[in-house]
Design a protein that fits this description.
Elements (H helix, E strand, L loop, with lengths): L2 E6 L2 E6 L1 H21 L3 H22 L1 H26 L9 H13 L10 E2 L9 H11 L11 H13 L9 H11 L5 H30 L1 E3 L2 E2 L1 H8 L9 H9 L13 H13 L3
Parallel strand pairs: 3-5
Antiparallel strand pairs: 1-2, 4-5
Helix pairs in contact: 3-8, 5-10, 5-11, 7-8, 10-11
């Protein structure tokens, strides 16, 4: 037994058991501290995770891995854009053998093909612009891009109208020009995203510069989707009206132009109301 001196009236009096009690209290305090450190609080855990993440990012920056990835990403984007621009230059003389929309539809048909579905059949024949009737050219312009010959790839007036309708929740039409639609058809397919719109906007001036209006219209009329597996004016005219694109009538042309906004859902024979609007626009434009 250990005795502890306790001063009483100036004289140290030793009491038995005090030392054991003091040692017990010290040990209990240490055990409590160890227990608290073994089970940290949620706030401490969060701070530790953030600290580890910051340390990892710092190491990445110091090692150059992140900078290297960003550099290669930028190089890849520039190469893809350059390839698209070169394709547009080549399209001045070479007719496109296919487009992103054609490839997309083939892939979708392959994915959804079953024993009950008919095999996918693509109709695509490229013909010169002088083999497409003026009525069909004018009907498509009146329906899709009335200011085609006035703008340089973007119709800012229509964009403003579409933006105002968006704000009011009354959007009834798009603002894409024929040039924008051509770039989308050639390179991006039918998907919608801000990134796609941004990339499209950088290629539209290239198309306007290197192709010119007549070639843009010629390619568009030949590659645009006119129904399931039906691409181009010649294929559409022969499929729906059993006539060459050169010989199609004014009314037939207006009905064909009317299905372009939704070619997989619309049919020319059901487009009498919209085709009448297109015919009226053509007359107003002097055609």
């Amino acid at each position: 037994m250990i005795l502890i001196g306790v001063p009483v009236g100036g004289v140290a009096v030793f009491q038995p058991g005090w030392c054991e009690s003091l040692l017990f209290c010290v040990r209990a305090h240490k055990i409590a501290q160890n227990h608290r450190s073994a089970v940290p609080s949620p706030g401490l855990l969060f701070r530790n995770v953030i600290a580890m993440q910051n340390t990892y990012i710092k190491k990445l920056l110091e090692s150059g891995s992140l900078r290297s990835f960003a550099r290669w990403l930028v190089i890849g984007v520039v190469l893809l854009w350059s390839l698209a621009a070169i394709t547009l230059v080549a399209a001045r003389w070479i007719d496109p053998p296919t487009t992103a929309v054609h490839i997309q539809r083939r892939f979708q048909a392959w994915v959804h093909q079953t024993s009950k579905n008919a095999p996918y059949h693509e109709r695509y024949k490229f013909v010169p612009l002088n083999q497409i009737s003026d009525d069909l050219q004018h009907a498509v312009i009146a329906a899709e891009d009335a200011h085609f010959y006035q703008h340089h790839g973007f119709d800012w007036h229509e964009i403003q109208i579409a933006a105002e309708e968006d704000l009011e929740g009354e959007r009834t039409r798009g603002a894409s020009t024929i040039t924008q639609q051509l770039v989308k058809n050639l390179f991006f397919g039918t998907g919608r995203s801000i990134l796609r719109k941004g990339a499209e906007a950088t290629l539209v001036p290239v198309a306007e510069l290197v192709l010119g209006k007549e070639r843009i219209l010629e390619i568009y009329l030949n590659v645009v989707e006119w129904g399931p597996g039906i691409y181009g004016a010649e294929s559409a005219c022969r499929y729906y009206d059993e006539i060459a694109a050169l010989n199609i009538s004014r009314q037939q042309a207006a009905r064909l132009a009317a299905i372009l906004p939704a070619p997989l859902k619309r049919r020319p024979e059901r487009m009498n109301n919209y085709s009448a609007i297109i015919l009226k626009r053509m007359s107003q434009m002097g055609w």
